From TrEMBL:
Native species: Marisediminitalea aggregata
Name of protein: DNA-binding transcriptional regulator, MarR family
Any single biological process term in GO: response to stress
Keywords, ordered alphabetically: DNA-binding
Gene Ontology MF term list: DNA binding; DNA-binding transcription factor activity
């Protein structure tokens, strides 16, 4: 049996850890009727000016395809968390906006998810959290670079 490289061990640990981290976050958000991916959509919209963003930019920001973000947004539109917006300058550009109902749902869910995030990281001190964030940011940039080379 061959042993895995350190890089491959890191990737496997990240995947396993992601699953373990998402469990309490998803559980916390389910009380609000929101999945973690839906919360990511709301979070990205919340960060955008006028809470509005191009669909394709939203897809890139949360790591899904354009068709994937469309499938994700449909139920969110039905419950009134997001709405389609026409671009006055270019009708081909599809925009999505966080509604006032979506903003309220996002803010309530964010309060809950903050508590869950604190529980997930409770065995780490502030310095360890910051170090981890720095290392993961470097890995993220490295992954972006690798994807562009593919």
């Amino acid at each position: 049996m061959s042993s895995l490289t350190h890089s491959m061990q890191l990737i496997l640990t990240l995947v396993k850890t992601q699953g373990q981290v998402l469990k309490p976050l998803e559980s916390t958000l389910s009380v609000h009727g929101i999945s973690f991916t839906e919360w990511l959509v709301m979070h990205r919209l919340y960060q955008s000016s006028d809470h509005t963003i191009k669909r394709v930019s939203l897809a890139d920001a949360i790591g899904v395809t354009a068709s994937g973000v469309t499938r994700l947004l449909l139920p969110m539109e039905k419950v009134g968390w997001v709405e389609r917006v026409t671009n006055a300058r270019d009708a081909r550009v599809s925009l999505v906006r966080l509604t006032s109902g979506g903003l309220e749902a996002y803010q309530q869910a964010t309060n809950s998810i903050e508590h869950a995030a604190n529980r997930v990281t409770n065995m780490m001190n502030q310095q360890q959290v910051e170090q981890c964030m720095g290392l993961l940011s470097s890995l993220h940039l490295s992954a972006i670079d690798a994807a562009q080379l593919s």
